[in-house]
């Protein structure tokens, strides 16, 4: 939603400007990272304000480490947000993917560029063209996530952020 995008932008800019902030962790609420964009918003009149692509670029260009704590699902735009992060930690039950292709849409926030850089062209093409959701353990093998945990994903992400 626009509110989530605006909160991400505001939070990132505030963290970047605050010298006491050493790293940023992005997580969802109630055990869910994000299922991505609401498809109903695509048919609404042209939105003004923030857009996902520039937010992901803002994350990627942060001088401070940004860690994604992925629980539940990171699908579509949510995976693109995670791809912009410098590090990704996933709960063992998390799933990731770019399912918008199954309804005729291409990932619109440069996920088609960031994913191949991270996991290689063959694996990325498979994910991008099929829209399949991959489990965290497969994401770890591919290099999509840096660590898979069975317990508290947020604590693990904070630990990693402090370490780097």
UniProtKB/TrEMBL annotation:
Superkingdom is: Eukaryota
Any one Gene Ontology BP term = fatty acid beta-oxidation
Q: Which UniProt keywords apply?
A: Isomerase, Lyase, Multifunctional enzyme
Which GO MF term does the entry hold, naming one? enoyl-CoA hydratase activity
Segments crossing the lipid bilayer: none
Q: Which Gene Ontology cellular component terms are annotated?
A: peroxisome
Keyword NADP in the entry? The reply is no
Q: Which reaction does it catalyse?
A: (3S)-hydroxyhexanoyl-CoA = (2E)-hexenoyl-CoA + H2O; a (3E)-enoyl-CoA = a 4-saturated (2E)-enoyl-CoA; (3S)-hydroxydecanoyl-CoA = (2E)-decenoyl-CoA + H2O; a (3Z)-enoyl-CoA = a 4-saturated (2E)-enoyl-CoA
InterPro entries reported for this sequence: ClpP/crotonase-like_dom_sf, Enoyl-CoA_hyd/isom_CS, Enoyl-CoA_hydra/iso
Question: Keyword Lipid biosynthesis: yes or no?
Answer: no
> One of this protein's Pfam families, by short name?
ECH_1
Family under the similarity heading: In the C-terminal section; belongs to the 3-hydroxyacyl-CoA dehydrogenase family. Belongs to the enoyl-CoA hydratase/isomerase family.
List the protein's name: Peroxisomal bifunctional enzyme
Source organism = Nicator chloris
């Amino acid at each position: 939603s626009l509110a989530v995008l605006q909160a991400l932008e505001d939070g990132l800019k505030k963290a970047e400007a605050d010298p006491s902030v050493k790293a940023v962790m992005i997580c969802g609420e109630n055990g869910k990272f994000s299922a991505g964009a609401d498809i109903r918003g695509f048919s609404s009149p042209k939105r003004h304000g923030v857009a996902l692509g520039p937010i992901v670029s803002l994350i990627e260009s942060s001088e401070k480490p940004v860690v994604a704590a992925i629980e539940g699902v990171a699908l579509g735009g949510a995976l693109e947000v995670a791809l912009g992060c410098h590090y990704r930690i996933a709960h063992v039950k998390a799933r990731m993917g770019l399912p918008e292709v199954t309804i005729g849409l291409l990932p619109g926030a440069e996920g088609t560029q960031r994913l191949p850089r991270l996991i290689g062209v063959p694996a990325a093409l498979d994910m991008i063209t099929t829209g399949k959701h991959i489990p965290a353990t497969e994401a770890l093998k591919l290099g999509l996530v840096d660590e898979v945990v069975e317990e508290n994903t947020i604590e693990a992400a904070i630990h990693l952020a402090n370490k780097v």
